[in-house]
Amino acid sequence: MLKKINEAAEFLAQQFGNDAKIVIVLGSGLNHLADEIITQKVINYTDIPHFPVTTVEGHEGKLIYGKLCNIPIIAMQGRFHYYEGYDMKQVTFPVRVFKAMGVQTMVLSNAAGGMNPLYKVGDIVMITDHINFFPENPLRGKNDNQLGERFPDMSEVYTHALLQKAGSIAKSLGIPYHKGVYVGTSGPTFETPAEYRMYRILGGDCVGMSTVPEAIVAHHGGMQCIAFSVITDLGIAGQVEKVSHREVLNAANMAGKKLQSIVKELVKVI
Ligand code: HPA
C-alpha cells in the first residue's frame, strides 16, 4: 500500500507542488466553497494513480489545488463512501496520500441527520467526537508503522485547538452552531425511527454516512482534524419525517453559506 500511496503523492506533488498544508473535503454543505477557491490546477480522480472514482449524484470527483483567502489548499470535490461499495482502504486512500504530500490539517464536512432535540434543519454542528458504527475499522489489517501506530489513542480525534478557533470565528461572525457527537454508519439507508432513537440513547447528536473513516485515518497519520455537519433532516422522536437525497442536498446547500464563511476564516488561522 505504501508504494501506491507514494506513487499517487509523487504524481500530485508534481502537479500541485507541496505548499498546501490543508485539505478540505467538500462534502454536502461545502460544495460551493469550490467557487471561492482561486483555482490553480484541477485533476480528475480518474487521472490520479490508484485513486478510486466517485459515483454518487451530487458529488463530483476531482481535486482542486488553489488559494482560499490567499492560503494554498487542496480541496476534494467528491469523496469515496463506504456505501458505494469501496472498501475502507479505498475510502481513506486519499487521506494517506495527502499525508504523504505533507498536508498537516484535514477539514471535513458532511450532511447529517439531527437527533439532538435542540437541532433544526440547516444547523451547523462542530463535531467534537464520534461513534464508529461502520461494520469495519479502516485500520483493520496489518499495520504499517510508517503510517501510524498499531493501537492509536482516540481521546482527541478532532483537534481541540481547531475547534476552539472555529468556535471563536463562528461567534465573531454571529453564526450559531452546536457542538456534538457524530455517529458514522455505513448507509445507504437512512435510519428507521428506532435506529435514530438507539443512536440518540447511545450518545449521538447527529448521524451520517461518512467522515469517521477519514478522521480515523487522518488521526492515525498524525494529522490535525476538524469536521462539520450540516443538519439536513431530523431523526428526533415524534419528528422523524420521510427523507430523500434531494432534500438532503437542498438543505445542505442552504446551510452551506454559513459553513463556508467559517471555513474561509479558519484556513487563515490554522
Ligand atoms: N442519516 C444518515 N445519513 C444522513 C442523514 C441521516 O439522517 N442525513 C444526511 N445524511
Mean pLDDT, nearest integer? 92
CATH-assigned homologous superfamily: Nucleoside phosphorylase domain
Cross-sheet strand order for the largest sheet: 5-8-7-6-9
- Tell me the strand percentage band: 15-25%
The CATH class is identified as Alpha Beta
The number of helices is 7
Distance between the termini: 30 Å
CATH topology: Rossmann fold
Question: SSE order in H/E notation?
Answer: HEEEEHHEEHEHEHEH
Model regions low in confidence, pLDDT < 50 over at least 5 residues: none
Helix content: 25-40%
Shape: globular
Largest sheet: 5 strands, mixed, barrel
Bound molecules: hypoxanthine
Give structural notes:
Strands 5-8-7-6-9 form a five-stranded mixed β-barrel, surrounded by four helices. It has 270 residues and is α/β, with parallel strands linked by helices. The chain has one domain: Rossmann fold (3-Layer(aba) Sandwich). It has seven helices and nine strands. Helices cover 31% and strands 24% of the residues. The model has no long low-confidence stretch (mean pLDDT 92). The protein binds hypoxanthine. Hypoxanthine binds next to β5, β8 and β9.
